[in-house]
Design goal:
Elements: E1 5-11, H1 16-29, E2 32-39, H2 40-46, E3 52-57, H3 71-94, E4 98-101, E5 105-107, H4 113-120, E6 126-128, H5 136-142, E7 149-152, H6 158-166, H7 177-184, E8 189-191, E9 198-199, E10 215-218, E11 221-224, E12 227-228, E13 231-233, H8 247-259, H9 263-277
Parallel strand pairs: 1-2, 1-4, 2-3, 6-8, 9-13
Antiparallel strand pairs: 4-7, 5-13, 6-7, 10-11, 11-12
C-alpha cells in the first residue's frame, strides 16, 4: 500500500454506484480517508463507512449535469459543483493537503508515493491534470486542465477559483473548469503524467485515436504505453443526457481486466457485477 490519500469528492443519487466503484477500486491499491459532499440519499448509504466524512446538501434535481440545456438545469449543476469547494475546505481544515476525485473514476494501480509527497509539499500550490486531448479548440472553450483530479494544500488558493466559478455564467466561462485554467497562472503547479486521470477525451480525435492501442496487458497489468495505468475517468453506470461518449473506453478497459489474472482486477470485476445488480 502507498501512503494515505486524503480524498474529497461530490456524490448524488445518480452517481452513487459510480462513487462506490471509485472507492472500492481506489482502496484496492491505496489507503484512503474521504470527505464527501453528497445529497441526502447518498448520505444514507455513505455514512456507514468509517473512513468517510459526509457533508450532506440539498438539491432539487440531482439529474442535472454539465450537458444541461436549460438555465435551471445549469443552476442545479452549479450548486453541485460548488459543494466540491465545501468538501475541500473541510478536508484542509483537518489535513495538510487533499486530492479531489470525480465520482466517475476507476483505479487500476496505486498513486505513486512520490506524487503523494509532492501533493503534500507546501512549495507546490496545485497538482493538476491536463486534458492531453490535443484538441486546441475544445480546450480553449472547456479549459486546458481537467477538474476531475487535482490536489492542493492551501484553502486560500481556492478563493479566486471559487469566485469565478460562482460567477461563471456572468463571465461566460465553462463552469469551474475554465476558471481553473485562468487562476492557475497565479500559482506554482505540477502536472500529473498522462497515466493518471485517463479520460475518454484523450482518444477521440484524429490525432489521438491511435492511443487506444497503447492500452495493453503486460504481465497481467494494464499499461498505458510503458507506464502503469493508474486511474481511468469515464462513466461505467451513468449515461449523462442518455449518451455515454466514453463507452468505447469502458469496453476496452473492462475487456483488459477480464483477460488479466491479477487478483485485484478479478476482485474489481466481481464488485462491479454486484453494483450492476444493486437496486439503488
Amino acid at each position: 500500500m502507498s501512503e494515505t490519500l486524503i480524498v474529497t469528492s461530490v456524490v448524488t443519487k445518480t452517481c452513487l454506484k459510480e462513487f462506490l466503484l471509485l472507492k472500492y477500486s481506489c482502496e484496492l491499491f491505496n489507503t484512503c480517508i474521504w470527505y464527501v459532499s453528497c445529497d441526502s440519499y447518498s448520505d444514507g448509504h455513505l455514512r456507514e463507512y468509517d473512513n468517510i466524512t459526509t457533508l450532506p446538501f440539498d438539491i432539487e434535481d440531482a439529474q442535472s449535469d454539465h450537458n444541461s440545456a436549460n438555465p435551471h438545469g445549469r443552476e442545479q449543476f452549479l450548486k453541485i459543483i460548488l459543494n466540491k469547494f465545501l468538501a475541500i475546505e473541510r478536508a484542509l481544515a483537518e489535513n495538510s493537503y487533499c486530492v479531489f476525485l470525480d465520482s466517475d473514476m476507476l483505479f487500476l494501480n496505486a498513486v505513486d508515493s512520490t506524487i503523494i509527497n509532492l501533493m503534500k509539499n507546501p512549495e507546490i500550490d496545485f497538482v493538476v491534470s491536463p486534458h492531453y486531448s490535443r484538441n486546441p479548440e475544445n480546450e480553449d472553450r472547456y479549459g486546458f486542465y481537467n477538474v476531475g483530479m487535482f490536489a492542493l494544500g492551501n484553502v486560500e488558493h481556492l478563493q479566486q477559483w471559487k469566485y469565478l466559478t460562482e460567477n461563471c455564467e456572468k463571465f461566460n466561462l465553462y463552469y469551474e473548469q475554465k476558471p481553473f485554467e485562468l487562476i492557475l497562472s497565479n500559482f506554482k503547479t505540477l502536472n500529473l503524467p498522462i497515466n493518471y486521470n485517463i479520460g475518454w477525451w484523450r482518444f477521440n480525435n484524429e490525432r489521438t485515436q491511435a492511443r487506444i492501442n497503447q492500452l495493453t496487458l503486460v504481465d497481467d497489468e494494464v499499461k498505458f504505453g510503458t507506464l502503469p495505468a493508474v486511474n481511468f475517468h469515464f462513466h461505467v453506470f451513468k449515461e449523462p443526457a442518455g449518451y455515454n461518449p466514453g463507452k468505447f473506453l469502458v469496453n476496452k478497459v473492462m475487456g483488459l481486466l477480464k483477460d488479466s489474472n491479477k487478483p485485484e482486477y478479478q476482485q474489481l470485476l466481481s464488485y462491479h457485477g454486484q453494483l450492476s445488480e444493486a437496486s439503488f
